Amino acid sequence: MIRRLAGVLWALAQTLPDPDEDPDLGPFCTYLRQRYGRHPLALSPKEWEEGLLDLIAEAIAEGWDRYGAPSAARDPEGEGYIASAEVGPETQNLHLCTLGIVMLGGPLERGRRFPV
User: Fold this and answer.
1) Over the stretch 33-75, which tens digit does the pLDDT of each residue have?
2) Is the dihedral of CA 56, 61, 67, 68 positive or negative?
3) Which class for 115: exposed (0-12), middle (13-18), buried (19 or more C-beta within 10 A)?
4) How far is the C-alpha of 48 from the C-alpha of 9, rounded, in Å?
5) How far apart are CA 89 and CA 40, in angstroms?
6) What does the alpha-carbon distance between residue 51 and residue 54 come to, in Å, rounded to a whole number?
7) pTM for the whole thing?
8) N or C: which end of the chain has fewer CB within 10 A?
9) Which residue from 83, 116, 75 is spatially nearest to 99, judged by alpha carbons?
């Protein structure tokens, strides 16, 4: 899914006169320029994909550093994982995103089992 999203962003940038000035795409173009030291339009779709993955990973790690990381343990019966996190209004989306990415599960509920 990240590969497709990065490809869509790359293709969109190719159609814009200056993607750095786009209100939605501009911040990501700035990130790519800083990461690779080249204009975003000079980058390959693979570089956009790697940049997007790194940006997502950095955002998740920053959230973990600020609010604490969620945890997951193997279900004792071997049916999946048991997830837990301290969830409040400021951390709910971070933990849902993290757990969804890691375990490909659904909404977070304390003690919910995610299929393997």
Assistant:
1) 999 999 999 999 999 999 999 988 888 888 777 776 666 666 6
2) positive
3) exposed
4) 8
5) 35
6) 5
7) 0.62
8) N
9) 83
